[in-house]
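In this supplementary section we document a worked example of the pipeline. Step one takes a protein sequence of length 245 as its only input; no multiple sequence alignment statistics are reported here. Step two produces a three-dimensional model, which step three serialises into structure tokens for compact storage. The input and output of this example are shown verbatim.
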Amino acid sequence: MPPYYYLFFILIIACAIWGASVSAKVRSAFQAYGGMPNSSRMTGYDTAVRLLRANGVNDITVGRVRGTLSDHYHPTKKVVNLSDGVYGNASIAAVAVAAHEIGHVMQKKTGYGMYRLRTALVPITNIGSRLALPLVLLGLILDLFVSTSNASTGFYLALAGVALYGLSTLFALVTLPVELNASRRAKEMLLQQGILRQEEIPYADKMLDAAAKTYVASLLTSLVYFLRFLVWVMVLFGRTNDRRR
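The serialised model returned by step three reads:
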């Protein structure tokens, strides 16, 4: 087995271990600061509603969703869904998570560039993930069995499949600054509205920073899988060409 197989195997295992560790730290941070009452005694729901109204947003509703840290903003349905542990919880962690989701609402309202780019990438990335492997296989078939005026047609078709596969990595790359920006907006809004005091912000920081690292882990994992896919295609076509000589 070629050395690069072992290299990618080690990298994938390392990313999986780090990802699991980061997820554990997020849960640990939420348990720690989810039991720490905030000075305003506002719940996640109260916080979301207050921040929406304070920023002149009146067409977004705040709902409740099952799960742990399953909070998300659904722009199409115009709803911010808060998880069970956030919705009615008056802790520092709960208001930090709720404010983070409102940060995404404000990104959409203000036309934040990276948010708009991520939104535009969603349908393209979904299509790309479905077409990537079929294009590579079609390229291989063309390269093996079909005579064309351009001998590289199959190879270029396969590279197009690799590029489509790489859209998921691009999406992960764009997602990272979007999430960091939402957290920055969250902390600013929490202070401006008096929901958290200055001395409480470091605790909210730790909660949000732990969550942000999950996106770093996702980006690195996606990059490793993309590089493995690219190398696999290059080696596959290299072997095909070698057999023809």
